[in-house]
Amino acid sequence: MGKPNLSWTFAASAAATAAVFALAGLPSQAQQAPVRQEHGNLILEGIPPRDAQLTERLGLYRQSRQATFLDWLPDGGMLVSTRFGDVEQVHRIATPLGMREQLTFYPDPVSTAQAPRVAPTNGQGNAFVFLKDLGGDENAQIYYYSSSAHVQRLTQGKFLHGSPVWSNDGKRVAFYGTERDGISYDVYVTDIGSTNAPRLVAGGQQDSWYPLDWSPDDRKLLLWKYVSINESYLFIADVYTGTLTPADTSGRKIGIRSARFAPDGRGIYMASDEDGEFAQLRYLDPVSHEVRKLTDKIQWDIEDFDVSVDGRYIAYVANEDGRSRLTILDTLQKLEQAPVGVPDGRVQNIHFDKTGRRLAFSAESAQSPRDVYVYDLNHSALERWTRSEVGAVDVANFAPAELVRYPTWDRVAGSQRMISAYLYRPRGPGPHPVVIDIHGGPESQARAAWNPFVQFLVNELGYAVIAPNVRGSSGYGKTFLKLDNGVLRHTGSFNEYRLLHPIAGAKYLLGEQFAFIDAIGMKQRQDEQIELFLAMMVRLQQYSRDKFGAPFVVIYSWPDETSHPGHGESEFAQPMLVGVLERLRKLGIPLISVDHVTGEYDVSQLLIPHDGHPNAFTTELIAAELKRYLKSQ
User: Fold this and answer.
1) What is the mean pLDDT of residues 517-541?
2) 540-579 pLDDT, tens per residue?
3) Angle in degrees, CA 472, 476, 478, rounded to 5
4) Distance between CA 139 and CA 135 in Å, rounded?
5) Backbone phi and psi for residue 5, each to the nearest 5 degrees, phi listed first
6) Cβ neighbours for 332, distance < 8 A, ≥ 6 positions apart
7) Which of 37-41, 138-142, 278-282, 512-516 is predicted least confidently?
8) Measured distance CA(282)–CA(548) in Å, rounded
């Protein structure tokens, strides 16, 4: 039997369900009764042993290093996070491409750090605060670093903390914490160098509050009350009295991405989607309630921005179909600059230094790992500050992220709706196996970014990879974002709202006619959805055997017979999904279970977290098994 010309994975979501299905070149004898193997919380049924050579090769891709800009230091240097051991730690860099001086040394990763805008009065110019949890417990604590030998923990208890923001005078830090009830995100302020406990500024009920910025006189805090990606509110808090004043008195439900005080202390810059589909950059006057749009000509989300200390320059990043576009607006001369030479992928963490004439940021692409760059406005020059090592792989062979679009089943504004996707093509003539990679979320987006595992699939296994932005993805307007909400998610999760997109993507690549999936009504009961799902599996199973001589392999993290009661969203979901699993077995489909039962297992060893994103060990296993199938022909 020759090697099959199609291999694809796609994700389906339903209540308490996260599954990946892979069609791989399994020989016909795999139709026999599967052999069950248990390795801790990993259960294999009908799966051959791992390929040691392939595992070793994948390890080379996983060793690539990246660098992320964290903050400027008062002396003109910067803080970055990068990895020289097993996890990322904070490093200091003084000059472009200078030595990376490691400052934190922990077994747990440190990837968030903030420095004051002015040096502390005690002369410790490299002081900063950072977040770190313990053993992956996700209860991040805030620490104050004055030197490698002097690190002070500012928060206590097994509670979650985040979003540290320094006051302008460098004496206080605002942050959110869950101390009050273990659930709600309240805002606290702590005095650096004081032994007093942090002081509650804003909170109450079960809300989520985040500190965003201090006013220039340090008397007020700009707070973000987050409800959902489509609903959030801005408030101004008096730091001393705790009085909260809404920045917008209309009470409208709008999606706010970010906000900060204007340097004059009167207005607020914000990225929000009010009065439109996309998050636009606006200036809000809380006194007159006047709103002025600054990016109304850009029909994409503004996902990040910063303002120079004197207010002359505003830098912003537009998310254009999954690629970042960095622009710097000169408000004095009414001119725009687009730095040349920025990697064509994703730009994050933009931040002006204290002079307002240097802009630092992180940038990456599908063919270059994330690194730190600085744009000098006085000289219109881009400087590279880090050059991350990629290990023993040749990035010259890495596939670019090719933007493609294909039609889906429904229509919008009289035309067929188009779905965007990023395609990574292997070299050489086809046809090629195909892996369809659906992002998590669903309020997320496939981006043109660094992904060594995708490149491993393309270069080592010869797969084409397509990453579609299915309905419900962010970045395409709030109407598109809501297409996976509520009943649309649960009644459509086994039909067009999850499965038709990747099939349409395969159709785009191969010209195949997957016409066996019809448009399904929106109000179907759960049992009908199960029947639909199983019927589709039967047809896909028959189709794959007829065309490729290979069955589907189901890689699942569902509750099964070994799961603890109550695993998933509700207890009643377990018997339902066990029943689905049994019926899949009767179809003769080989199964891999990576069920994330906690029980006696160490949480840090779980293979697939709750959001469905496989970690490196999982992807290593999946790649090894698929490669094994192809080699066993």
Assistant:
1) 52
2) 666 656 655 555 555 555 444 444 443 333 344 456 667 7
3) 65
4) 10
5) -105, 15
6) 312
7) 512-516
8) 54
DSSP code at position 61: H
Position 432 scores a pLDDT of 81
Where along the chain do its domains lie? Answer: 8-62+394-631, 66-153
How many angstroms separate the CA atoms of 70 and 621, rounded? 33
Q: CB neighbours of 518 closer than 8 A, spacing ≥ 6?
A: none
Cβ count within 10 A of residue 198: 23
* Residue 352 near residue 307, CB atoms below 8 Å: yes
Distances, alpha carbon 124 to alpha carbons 121, 147, 475, 509, in Å: 8, 8, 42, 58
| Tokens found for residue 401 | 């992220």
| pLDDT: which is higher, 147 or 262 | 262
Specify the CATH number of the domain 8-62+394-631: 3.40.50
Confidence of residue 134 (pLDDT cuts 50, 70, 90): confident
**Beta 591-593 vs 552-556: how paired, if at all?**
parallel
Average pLDDT along the chain: 77
Q: pLDDT of 311-361, one tens digit each?
A: 999 999 999 999 999 999 999 999 999 999 999 999 999 999 999 999 999
- Helix, strand, coil shares, percent, the chain, to 5: 15, 35, 50
| Helix axes 616-631 and 52-62, enclosed angle (nearest 10) | 140
Cα within 13 Å of Cα(538), Cβ side: 9
Close Cβ partners of 590 (under 8 Å, ≥ 6 residues apart): 26, 30, 34, 45, 46, 47, 551, 553, 554
Element (H or E) spanning 206, and its range? none
Are the CB atoms for 230 and 191 separated by under 8 Å? no
Do strands 301-307 and 402-412 pair parallel, antiparallel, or not at all (unpaired)?
A: unpaired
According to DSSP, the residues that pair with 627 across neighbouring strands are none
Q: Are 110 and 90 in contact, with CB atoms under 8 Å apart? A: yes
- Are residues 606 and 612 in contact, defined by beta-carbon separation less than 8 angstroms? no
The phi and psi torsions of 605 (rounded to 5 degrees) equal: -100, 0
- Cα–Cα distance between 193 and 170 in angstroms, integer? 11
